[in-house]
Amino acid sequence: MNSWALRGIIPPVITPLRGDDLLDEAGLEKLIEYLLAGGVSGLFVSGTTGEGPALSYHTRRAMIRRTAALVAGRVPVLAGLLDSAYPEMIALARYAAEVGADAVVGAPPCYFPLSQDDIFEFTQRLAAESPLPVLLYNTPHSSVRFELDTLERIADLPGIHGLKDSNGDPKYLEQLLRWKRTRADFSVYVGPEEFLASALRSGADGGVSGGANLFPKLYANWYKACAQDDTARIEALSKQVQQVWASIYTVGDSHSSIVRGLKCGLSLLGICDDHLATPYCPATRDERSRVREFVERFLQENGEPCPSIKQ
């Protein structure tokens, strides 16, 4: 298997919406330029933070197509395959290849309980049928994951290049990274941001960090500090990242708080609207006021340009 060789911060891009299931193309263009100017290494669309499973296939395809066109090869574009039906997954993978995406991110079909043999058979078929390189995905909020002995079997499959782990189990991640040291050709990316700094020091290739939607430069600099093992810089930037978690990831209902906070913050910066896919609701007036205060203070304290923050 060939090494994927993608390192750095890969935001799980939020999906800008103008209404229920209607892609905000102007907002998407602003968001992509904002992220690339912040120094991110790739873009992951239609994932969990992108609300992919809550969107119609039409809108998922539009998000992948427009992102690939707007990025125009400047960084890799990864398309999420999150579904309960394998035929829909492979159809989306083929579409992603047609419109210029660089890889797909595949999780085992959701809803039904799966054995590790089921997961291996799914992965084997996806590897054989996907026209694009495949990264696997341990999704959050799921009891199904790629166990290490299954990854041992999977790692030699042509077309499988790595794993994004959002499982949230630090012991599993530690074991995964220990195993990765024996497989330099298998990439590992970390979802939960509280594990990222230590994971990068232990050999992870990068982070799929939701907060990078709002503060891409902060997360890109955090990755660089970790890659350079700059302890003082890591500590200082980690404190700033923790402020983001405390102020942005806690907006409203805990189940939707991360996406709600990110979209609220981006709308305040004038990048896109804060509409969430059904059934989630945008931030309330009081929540929006709290996010606005944090964003203004954060930008000022870090010497960043502070645009006119919307009300």
Overview of the structural elements:
- The chain has 311 residues and is α/β, with parallel strands linked by helices.
- It has eleven helices and ten strands.
- The strands form two sheets. The chain has an eight-stranded parallel sheet with strand order 1-10-9-8-7-6-5-4. Strands 2-3 form a two-stranded antiparallel sheet.
What's the gist of this structure?
The chain is an alpha/beta fold.
Please describe the structure with a list of short key phrases separated by commas or semicolons.
311 residues, alpha/beta, two-stranded antiparallel ribbon, 11 helices, 10 strands, 44% helix
Structural class: alpha/beta
Beta-strand percentage range: 5-15%
Cα radius of gyration in angstroms = 18 Å
Q: Give the tally of β-strands.
A: 10
Strand order of the largest sheet: 1-10-9-8-7-6-5-4
The number of helical elements comes to 11
Low-confidence spans: pLDDT under 50, at least 5 residues? none
Distance between the termini: 51 Å
What's the average pLDDT?
93
The topology string of helices and strands comes to EEEHEHEHEHEHEHEHEHHHH
